[in-house]
Amino acid sequence: DTAVSQTPKYLVTQMGNDKSIKCEQNLGHDTMYWYKQDSKKFLKIMFSYNNKELIINETVPNRFSPKSPDKAHLNLHINSLELGDSAVYFCASSQAGTSGGDTNEQFFGPGTRLTVL
Amino acid sequence: SQQGEEDPQALSIQEGENATMNCSYKTSINNLQWYRQNSGRGLVHLILIRSNEREKHSGRLRVTLDTSKKSSSLLITASRAADTASYFCATLSGNTPLVFGKGTRLSVIA
């Protein structure tokens, strides 16, 4: 059974377009995340979200926005795509987020490779 | 922001040898976690060590934590070709999300 799934796996698009990446988790977790992994494999958190709070990495352009229709989904919308947005985007989830008593072990999706031409 | 730094960046060993990777971080932590990423895949959680622990084992994995030096090491014993992957440490501090290091690329040659 897939725990965290993402679609599409590959996304090739032109500069200036708007696109979305979908993420679903069937683990019953409270918190979901989006990460960007660049060509040097550096993994940078973009957003963390539960039903109480959205935490945004301040370095993320406002062209990126997370949308959560329900607890099991956190989709990533990207407007006006730029060449520098090309990367692999990972969705992840954890049980209870970032409070001090939790481990915050994260479960990752398989990634979406975005290529902007 | 705090970030783990893995060392070395890349490591190549023969099958059967042990592989040791190190991680250093900057501020106090609640726990430190190690993840593996196979090529083209998402990260997979391997092992977690809490700030009040010094060593943990899981199968062929051994993790140590030295909070005085703000460092951790991951030892993979009797490595196999299937261990070839990138390994990341991640630290949890207070109410901030996990922060990942840049990873160590391990190649195990059969």
Largest sheet of chain B: 6 strands, mixed
Order of helices and strands of chain B: EEEEEEEEEEE
The assigned structural class of chain A equals mainly beta
Number of DSSP helices of chain B?
0
Q: What is the number of E strands of chain B?
A: 11
Strand content of chain B: over 45%
Tell me what the structure shows.
The complex is a heterodimer of chains A (117) and B (110). With 117 residues, chain A is mostly beta strands. In chain A, 0% of the residues lie in helices and 47% in strands. Chain A has strands spanning 4-7, 10-13, 19-25, 31-37, 43-49, 54-56, 64-67, 75-78, 87-94, 107-108, 112-116. In chain A, strand 7 (64-67) and strand 8 (75-78) form a beta hairpin. The mean pLDDT of chain A is 89. Chain B has 110 residues and is mostly beta strands. In chain B, strands 2, 4, 5, 9, 10 and 11 form a six-stranded mixed sheet that branches. Chain B has a five-stranded antiparallel sheet with strand order 1-3-8-7-6, with no helix packed on it. Chain B is globular and about 40 Å long. In chain B, 37% of the residues are buried. The mean pLDDT of chain B is 92. The A-B interface holds A 4, 33, 35, 40-43, 45, 48, 55, 90, 92, 98-100, 103-111 and B 30-31, 33, 35, 37, 40-45, 48, 86, 88, 90, 92, 94-100, 102-103, 105.
Summary?
Chain A is an all-beta fold and 117 residues long. Chain A contains no helices and eleven strands.
Structural descriptors:
heterodimer; A: 117 residues; mainly beta; seven-stranded mixed β-sheet; four-stranded antiparallel β-sheet; 0% helix; 47% strand; globular; B: 110 residues; six-stranded mixed β-sheet; five-stranded antiparallel β-sheet; 55% strand
